[in-house]
Amino acid sequence: MSRRILPLFLLFIAITSTAMANVTEYTLKNGLKIIVKPDHRAPVAIFQIWYRVGGSYEPNGITGISHALEHMMFEGSRLYPNESFSKIVNAHGGKLNAFTADDFTAYFEEFSAKEIPLSFKMEADRMRHAKLTSKSFKKEIQVVMEERRIRLEDQSMAMTYERLRAAAFLSNPYHHMTIGWLGDLQHMTVQDVRNWYKEWYVPNNATIVVVGDVQPAKMLRLANRYFGHIPARLLPKEKPVVNQRPLGEKIINVALPEKLPIFIQAFRVPVIKTAKHKWQAYALDVLSAVLSGSDSSRFARNLVRGQQVAASVNTGYDAASRLDNIFTISGVPA
Fold first, then answer.
1. 313-334 burial string, b = 16+ CB within 10 Å, else e?
2. Given the residues 58, 70, 75, 140, the one annotated as active site
């Protein structure tokens, strides 16, 4: 590691350690994990529930199902039918949303701290009693496919990145994007979604995170009250992922109607979980910030403003992914 990057690396470790201070963790008998970080600077709090399932868990044929299920989870549950979930949160002055990634799916609500018990009650109900109806599925799968068209198929950079991932990952499940292949979405059924929900949305595959003006002991009591009775279930057995040895450089040409060319270069790299030495992953994370983390970073200063050979240059790296990933450099020439 260079002498210039070392101080940044040490600062990164110090900030991470400070952020983790004053954190309390619990695990219920059914395997549900709870992480609480009090912050009493304002009378607000955020509740998140993370499920350890995402695009990288999906086999061929049902890619995109984790994201499709995320959409379906807002259609209602036993206690909150007919899409009333969002209406109730808004009526209590909060906001909510969800997001799906390669390795997880997460749901969250932001409230006045006194409303956090409502999050526990609602999320426990849809963990076990989500209404996954055929009528809702027909509507939501169309929304998902339209989202793919807008965010991916109509964006040259996104389409190029999708094809790059497909070429870079032969046996690694990051081969496909989280939103899935269009053909799989077109042939997905509501029963596929129900099976996915039954397999993965269980307490022993979930982690609750609460941050804000809260007391850890009270959060544990709420978790026991609303989630403690939900039984754990055996999770699907994950097959080991064996990365295929690269046999040489790969070059892909993606022909799309675009006024300017787009360039993306990817390097296969380890992450925190897979690196032989953990500092390697942290160093790559710092390197990404040094190269393109701000307007004063190396690429912006030297290639965009200095030599003026590029309109934009960016790097990408996810140190926290569960499998080996790629470090990308992407850009548009001036």
1. bbbebbbebbbbbbbbbbbbee
2. 70
| CB burial of residue 214 (10 Å; 0-12, 13-18, 19+) | buried
Between 5-19 and 278-292, two packed helices, what is the crossing angle to 10 degrees? 110
Q: Which two tokens stand for residue 137?
A: 């599925």
Per-residue pLDDT in tens (0 to 9) along the chain, 334 residues: 444 444 554 555 554 555 567 999 999 999 999 999 999 999 999 999 999 999 999 999 999 999 999 999 999 999 998 878 899 999 999 999 999 999 999 999 999 999 999 999 999 999 999 999 999 999 999 999 999 999 999 999 999 999 999 999 988 899 999 999 999 999 999 999 999 999 999 999 999 999 999 999 999 999 999 999 999 999 998 888 877 888 889 999 999 888 889 999 999 999 999 999 999 999 999 999 999 999 999 999 999 999 999 999 999 999 999 999 999 999 999 8
CB atoms within 10 A of CB 249: 5
- Stated pTM of the model: 0.90
Exposed / middle / buried, residue 56 (Cβ in 10 Å: 0-12, 13-18, 19+): buried
Alpha-carbon separation of residue 332 from 294, 306, 309 (angstroms): 17, 15, 9
Pairwise CA distance, residues 86 & 201, whole Å: 20
Among 298, 292, 294, CA closest to 316: 292
CA separation for the pair 114, 44 (Å, rounded): 8
Q: Are 53 and 200 in contact (CB under 8 A)?
A: yes
Q: Where are the alpha helices (DSSP H) in 277-321?
A: 278-292, 298
Is residue 70 annotated as a catalytic residue, yes or no? yes
